[in-house]
Specification:
Elements: H1 2-23, H2 30-73, E1 82-83, E2 94-104, E3 107-117, E4 121-125, H3 132-139, E5 147-153, E6 156-159, E7 168-169, H4 170-175, H5 182-191, H6 195-200, E8 208-209, H7 218-231, E9 236-240, H8 248-262, E10 267-271, E11 283-288, E12 291-295, H9 353-363, H10 366-405, H11 412-463, H12 467-472, H13 475-517, H14 522-551
Parallel strand pairs: 1-5, 4-10, 4-11, 6-9, 9-10
Antiparallel strand pairs: 2-3, 2-5, 7-8, 11-12
């Protein structure tokens, strides 16, 4: 509607200015008329395109500047807690806290905790919700202490409590960008009880783990997440209760082979509530009521057994006696073909006619679309003919002025033609305004109806989709369809369709007017059209592919 009002304003302004100028008894000439037209076209472009665009860009700039300002004014995070640079000579890995207090939103989570770890395996335990994970987040600088000192020296590797799996191969999920070392990789698989699982998978290391690990068990996800942290050659390993999804026998195997043996020369801080591990570690950090106390294993009494969470969420489908290695395993979806990572199919070539047909049918059908096209055609017919009437009007004004200057009586026929021209021009301007408004409203309703129906069909399809669809399609792709794609259909497509019809019929009107003046003008027009056609053939394939890539 803004574009429509901008186009109509220049027409109405020109009509009002010239008619007022003539009614005041002033003579008019072609030079004056077309000078006013040129000025109004410039003003129309400025007020219709440049100024609104400037306001929009200024608003976007202001909002972006505010967001950047908030970021720049944010309190700097002091990264003295974690120093991942190469250790200095005579300096070893170390985790040291002194009187560290953590407070978030006025609630004190940890208070005046002090401990010093420079080697060995340390367990962090305590009641549920006591703040065990908060201790690890403090060491990772994910949260800051209100008071006290936190100092972590050395490279840190972290295994979260909730396993994070991304759609890729088993190997890529473990490596996560690290350089591949076959010996270390095989050793990590062994200590994390993944060797037998890897051998049983259809494609081994190249087995595709789907979105959120939907085709593997929770225990396998936990061990893959642990293997990812262990594979990284770090000085300090922070493991946040990453064994809780495993069978008790698998827990004992992984604890013995991974934490106790493989990481024996590293600093390993392991969060768990399994009291069976307490007597096998160097020290225990007991977290309770926000306080952390470093204890030796023999001081933790067996009365803390009730703190252990119910074991475990899943059991092995295969007995341990069936394998040389202890392994927790579950049944996988059997397939003769190697599963692949979900990848959206990208169309190539021209847009199929069925796409246009579906959009037209959603908007109201071919009858409505043809009616809108006819309205645009009628609008530009009135607009083009009104421009021809301006030329006739100027010629009549000049003839009448000549009669008056020569003191010759103006003929009755000339006056009649003059009045008819003014009346017809006024009617054409009025018709252009009315038809433009009606066609724009109908086009807006057409595109809105198509967008609403398309959105409803998408929602209906999503609600009726089987669970397998959600297993193989990433949630990001679904959100992208409902956000970015629908935004294009709602906001950009109506303007594109409006500009298409406006430019098409404006061009046709200009060509007809030029042909009416002199048929020879069609020669340069034909040359220009031919050049534009070949430029279109070059641009359209590249532009179409770029648009498809942008929407993928």
């Amino acid at each position: 509607m803004i574009l429509l009002l901008g186009a109509l304003t220049s027409k109405l302004a020109f009509f009002t200015m010239v008619m007022t100028y003539v009614w005041l008894g002033n003579p008019i000439s072609a030079e004056l008329v077309y000078f006013i037209l040129a000025l109004l076209q410039r003003v129309r472009h400025a007020f219709n395109v440049v100024i609104p665009m400037g306001i929009t860009e200024s608003a976007d700039f202001y909002a972006s500047a505010k967001r950047i300002e908030i970021l720049l004014k944010a309190e700097s995070v002091t990264m003295n807690a974690v120093e991942e640079n190469n250790l200095r000579i005579h300096e070893s890995a170390r985790v040291w806290l002194k009187n560290a207090t953590v407070e978030i939103d006025g609630q004190q989570l940890l208070r005046e905790i002090t401990f010093d770890i420079d080697s060995g395996l340390t367990i962090v335990s305590g009641p549920i919700g006591a703040g065990k994970t908060t201790v690890l987040k403090l060491l990772l600088s994910e949260i800051r202490c209100k008071e006290g000192t936190v100092h972590v020296t050395g490279r840190v590797s972290y295994a979260p409590q909730e396993s994070w799996i991304f759609p890729s191969t088993l190997k890529q999920n473990i490596l996560l960008g690290e350089k591949f070392d076959r010996n270390r990789y095989e050793e990590v698989l062994k200590v994390c009880a993944l060797t037998v699982d890897r051998d049983r998978l259809p494609a081994g290391d190249d087995f595709i783990v789907k979105e959120q690990g939907s085709n593997i068990s929770s225990g396998q996800k936990a061990r893959i997440s642990l293997a990812r942290a262990i594979y990284r050659n770090a000085d300090i390993y922070l493991l946040d209760d990453c064994l809780r999804s495993l069978d008790i026998h698998v827990q004992e195997y992984v604890f013995k082979e991974c934490m106790h043996r493989f990481l024996s020369e590293k600093i390993c801080i392991f969060v768990t509530q399994n009291h069976h591990f307490f007597d096998k570690v160097d020290s225990i950090l007991w977290v309770e009521n926000g306080a952390v106390v470093k204890r030796s294993p023999d001081t933790v009494s067996s009365k803390n057994e009730q703190l252990e969470e119910p074991v475990m969420s899943e059991r092995c489908d295969v007995t341990l006696g069936d394998y040389d290695e202890v392994n927790e395993s579950t049944k996988l979806l059997e397939s003769k073909h190697k599963p692949g990572i979900y990848c959206e199919e990208k169309k190539s070539g021209k847009v199929e006619k069925t796409v246009y047909n579906k959009y037209i049918n959603l908007g109201g059908g071919y009858f409505v679309s043809v009616f809108i096209i006819l309205l645009f055609m009628a609008t530009h017919t009135c607009k083009s003919y009104s421009e021809k009437m301006v030329s006739n009007w100027v010629n009549l004004e000049e003839n009448i002025s000549l009669y008056k200057h020569s003191n010759t009586t103006v003929s009755h026929g000339l006056i009649t033609v003059y009045n008819f021209t003014l009346t017809l021009y006024s009617c054409l301007i009025l018709g252009t305004v009315v038809l433009s408004v009606i066609s724009a409203i109908l086009l807006f309703n057409f595109t809105r109806a198509a967008s609403n129906k398309l959105h409803n069909l998408m929602v209906k399809s999503m609600m009726g989709a089987v669970m397998y669809f959600h297993d193989i399609i990433p949630i990001g792709s679904i959100i992208n369809r409902f956000s970015k794609d629908l935004t294009v259909i709602d906001e950009q497509l109506p303007f594109v369709v409006y500009d298409l019809l406006e430019i098409l019929f404006s061009f046709c009107g200009v060509v007809i007017l030029l042909a009416y003046v002199n048929l020879l003008f069609l020669i340069p027009v034909s040359v220009i059209v031919t050049i534009m056609y070949f430029m279109r053939k070059i641009y359209i394939p590249a532009g179409r592919n770029l648009q498809r890539m942008d929407m993928a």
